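Appendix B, example 12.
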Amino acid sequence: MRWRPSTYLFASGAASSLGDGIRYAAMPLLAVHVTRNPVSVAAVAAALSAAHLLFGFHVGAVVDRFDRVRLLRRTQLIRLALMLVLVAAVAVDQATLPLLLVAAFLLGTAELAADTAVQALTPVVVQDAGLEKLNAGLTASQSVGEDFAGPAVGGVLFAWNPLAPFVAIAGTLAASWGFLTRLRVPGRVARPAVRQSLTAEAREGLTYLLREPTLRTQAVWAAAMNLGVAAANATLVLYVVEKLHLSGGTYGLLLTCAGVGGLAGAAAVAHTVRLLGRVPTMIAASLVAGLATAGIALTGSVWLIGAFQFLAGFCGVSFSIVGRSLRQSITPDALMGRVTSIYRLIGFGSLPLGAIGGGAIAHQLGLGVPFLLAGAVMVGSTLTLGLLTRRAHTTRPEPVRQVSAL
């Protein structure tokens, strides 16, 4: 049976996401195995995400400069090599804290490049009408691998043998690379007549995003939505345990409700877009997500909170998938990596601010207030930035997409 390019990209992403989920459980457990110092353990987690702050502006220029398919294959090989180093270190009981910090930073850097390359390749692998379907598949596999199956497998394997989860991660990375070797799509964009510095090339992506009305308003809208989501998520555990006096297990089940809602949203999003269109789907999803978030503060019923979590997960994933597809349909291929990385910087940059702000508001005003304010921010941004995005998108000309031959 001959697979389509989209199937190979999906299979590679699914294998990689499963490995990431295993790593999310195994790396902190290994860090605790090496040291019980809270600062040192937190440093390992910070090292995994540090690349986003250090290289987030430039990584898109790297993705646009080189053949994206080859770059994706090589980043997976780099991650595999790093994981094999960790396997060897754990096997001989030499997994030191400095080694974990360096490995975590390099793994995070390679993962950032791989994620950006995947998003840049998606509109090359499928036509515009198929973007929602492939993005939904990638998102669903990421959710299953990173939120459900992977962490559970990682925890069980580590309890059995600390070496086992890292061997499993290496296996998933090898599988991901193997699928990518079968991917046959154009990976290189047209070379510019004069090669600039990475910073100058990254600025071209920023300039395009700022000058393109749909992308500009969409990026700020996504940042506002993430601000509200982060504020609510950061304080949910305190609201459940301290205000509602429920157990930690109940909190875990509420998170599962959001995860199940996300999977349902990924399954339904292509049908919703065919019915409503892209921007109207985003507007409807963000409005419902905002109302569901505010609703958490208005009830003490765990069943209603579970329903609100399901709705928030359903709508949040729908918003994310359609937003990604909209961005990919607008952006010229030559700028896809740069616009993707800069959009993610703007959109995700509000997450830590939202988390810190939610905690501060809960401390000063009460545990229910962050949910009300988060819902208000999400609904308010939809009624302003969402409607501006719709207006800008309905009046924009269609882009001319140029992709080089193999």
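Residues 400-406 have pLDDT under 50 and may be disordered. The two ends are 23 Å apart (CA to CA).
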